[in-house]
Amino acid sequence: MSSSYQKLCRQLGYFFADLGLLELALTHRSFGGRNNERLEFLGDSILNYVIAEDLFHRFPKAKEGELSRLRASLVKGETLAEIAREFKLGDYLKLGAGELKSGGFRRDSILEDAVEGIIGAIFLDAGMDSCSERILSWYESRLNATSLKVVTKDAKTRLQEYLQARKHALPQYEVIEVLGEPHDQTFYVHCVIELFADPIEGKGNSRRIAEQKAATQALAMLEQENA
Q: Is 204 helix (H, G, I), strand (E, B) or coil?
């Protein structure tokens, strides 16, 4: 085992029998050839299951919607990117020349994919028990800090509920423009609300993020008007 992978394995708390699985988990599609997309698919499903099961037992009186929001906050891209940075995964990624030049080793979407890839790799290397144990170890402090009292709905949900409660039409979202290379795109979205003459713009490196930012801005404007 190379010294760099040995260091990473110590940080992960898991040593691979098949080191090729770890290498594959760290290989972005821009590198060419085999990459971590299939492992990412597998890891995403396993992560959702493990976190869901822990929350199910941790909060026996929680409703389905509360558990769903808790899980979403724990498995979202931002959280996975945080975990990736704790392990300094950016130092180990195998990226194509274009991604290296554009700083792909710092990009949240690439980092979160690598974490899910590693989860999938551990599952194939050692099975569900070892994989679950590692996930819960990585998430221990976050799970212990989780509380039903701090469950928050995302901005789009809150905006929809705000408008519904006041008998207004639901917001409409439209992608206005997408700029950048396929590996580094910026989405511009308009959120149209009947209460405002002009659409509210949001931007982000995915459509989902852009829509959430537009909804956040819309909520702030509505709250300011009713302050």
A: strand
pLDDT at 72: 87
Query: Parallel, antiparallel, or unpaired: how do β-strands 172-179 and 186-192 relate?
Result: antiparallel
Looking at residue 206, what is its pLDDT? 83
Helix (H, G, I), strand (E, B) or coil at 174: strand
- In angstroms, the CA 28 to CA 21 distance is 13
pTM of the model: 0.69
Alpha carbon of residue 34 to chain centroid? 23
All residues at 6 or more sequence positions from 145 whose CB lies less than 8 Å from its CB, including other chains: none
Q: What is the pLDDT of residue 140?
A: 94
| The pLDDT of residue 13 | 96
11-29 as b/e, with b when 16 or more CB fall inside 10 Å? ebebebeebebbbbbbbbb
**How far apart are the C-alpha atoms of 112 and 40, rounded to whole Å?**
9
> Which residue has 């790799």 as its token pair?
121
Query: Residue ranges of the chain with pLDDT lower than 50?
Result: none
**Could you list the active site residues?**
44, 116
